[in-house]
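Notes from hallway chat w/ T.B., transcribed later so I don't forget. T.B. wanted the structure written out for a chain they're using in a teaching module, and asked if we could keep both sequence and structure tokens in one place. Agreed to drop them here.
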Amino acid sequence: MEILESIILILSLLIVANIVSHYFVSIPPSLLQIAAGVLAALFMHVKIYVDTEWFLLAFIAPILFNDGNNFPKRELWKLKGPILGNAIVLVIISTVVGGVFVKWLIPTLPWATAFTLVAVLSPTDPIAVQSIAKKAHIPDKLMHLISGESLINDASGLICFKYGVAATVTGMFSLKDATIDFFHISIVGALVGAVMIWIFNGIRLYLMNQGVDDSILHAIIQIIIPFIIYYIAEDVFDVSGVVAVVIAGILNISSNRNLSSFTPEIKMVTSRTWDLVVYVLNGIVFVLLGIEIPFAMEELVHNDNINTIGAVFLAFIIWIMLVVIRAVWSYVYTTFSNNADNKIVLWSKTRFDDCIMSGISGVRGAVTMVGVLSLPMTIKGGAPFPSRTLLLFLASTVIIFSLLGATILIPLLTKNSAPVAYRGNTFVSDEDDDNDDEDETPVVVKLTQAEANRIILDKTIKKLRSEMDDGDTAVYSSVIAEYLYDIRNLSIRNRSPKLASHQISKRRVKGKKDAELWDICFNCELEAIDELYTNHEISDEAYDLANRKIAKYKKEIVHRRYNSTVEFFLSYFRRTYLQIRRWFYRSVKYDDMQQINQDSIKISTAGAKRALVKLQELAHSDNDDFTDNLIYIFQRHYEDRLELLQGKYRGRTPQFSGDRAALEVKALSYQRAFVQDMLEQGKISKKTANELRQNINYSEEVINIGVE
């Protein structure tokens, strides 16, 4: 009963704090949550004891999994050098240098405890500065660096924190054993996370393949994934659950917004469910922080040889130290990076401001609080954990100083201002449109939801094609191609276990046409390969490799559903194996692959051009073997490939993505109008119309999530 009462009380405090934050927008919601906890502790005498293991499982696992899932993978790879430098090297430097500095500041603090404090302060929280990024004009590269660093330094910082706590509890520490153990639990933890998320991804794809598309079910599966992975990594394999959930989040298949395997409803419901979970977890952490502060101050006054004002001053000095270490590291790292690029600029005001901003932007947040609240009460032998209340107070105060520092100083450095929001505090509630509770009069209808949806998509395509000449052709073609893919997949998503004979026959004819058109395109590519080889423009190895690839694609020419469970998972395993083998081969034999890669680009370019010529001939001929829509899809495929090979792929640029999102929203407005027309004409029932509108709303929400 006490646990239930505590949960209700904490959630109530969180709700009150966030309601107040809407009236005081200049104050970060995290500070108001802390204040709510402080008031509850002072006036209601609330005190909550936290168990280390379940606290890490309940808070760390979902927060880090969600961060890894939402981080842009392209930016993570592009900035892998500075991100790894900040996330690993900077964490180690901060722990060592900061630990020595803290030991000098507080001589009575044991060495292991000093390192423990700085280690738990190493993880940063980038969302604290993201809300001011647009108005404060923080450089995009810096924002991506902070976000990527936070994703990985959560893991490295907490591992260092774990060793610090173990050394304090046991009184023993071996650098050699710690180093070996560090790599062991990190590497094996990463493997556990990768394998587990691969299994979960396969299960979710299999469920979709079998028509199990319940959005609530998929959201629940998504939520439970990080808890299972963390538990298995920690308790079964005895490795880092933190690393496991981070890797799992990065490799999670649902991180791709354009993944056609999942419906817009599943994507939207899952995304909003995660918003809710992270919103609550982060709020609870800061409310708990506020509850702990008064008791930490009280115990600090009575049990430690330092007064409260002195402890606040120490926390301020420690925060300044962390800012200086980050700023110096940024200066040193950029010096070596610029030196490698022959862009040596040892001093400039802009560079100085960037380094200072990098230092201030290292805001501490939820992960730091989770770690410090998980400190054990006792050490080996039953003695109290050394200066636990002091560490809790210092860590809590450093979080507040870092938050206030970012709130005040970053706008000053960028000559602008804006309120700050913490991780999870940007939750946006959904508003249902077009809800009508009037009684529905039964009418005779001719169209099911799937049939109506098909007609609406056809009309939308015609509308977009009529506007194509007046707009950006590439943007319109991209959206039209996606709608054509949706039409092709519509029958799959709405599959019935028992199909009529004419439906089966129609599907087989459609699949046969796809296969025939692929065969024509592949033959064009083979002709291009032979021509290049005859003209001695490619090597024997590249020629053989290209022919083997085309032969493999020809075997897999028909995109079909898997009726056998074993067949589905064998195919899933085979695709994964080929991806791993391809990555490993390219990594190990990089030098040998350079010439082959250059030849492969020639082959792909020539093959795409020749296939496009053939497709254009088919489009302008009177041949009725293939529909215009089918040819159009193939043309978009080869056009995108050519743009990518020639470095002109606009689909990766922010401008193109923004224009495409705007057109997608416009197309959805057309769909709403078509739904209304069909309803007024009596072709669909009011219930079907509401279901179609709901799907349109889901699609629009998915677009908005992608833009955010």
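Follow-up for T.B.: The chain has 26 helices and no strands. Might be a good example for the class.
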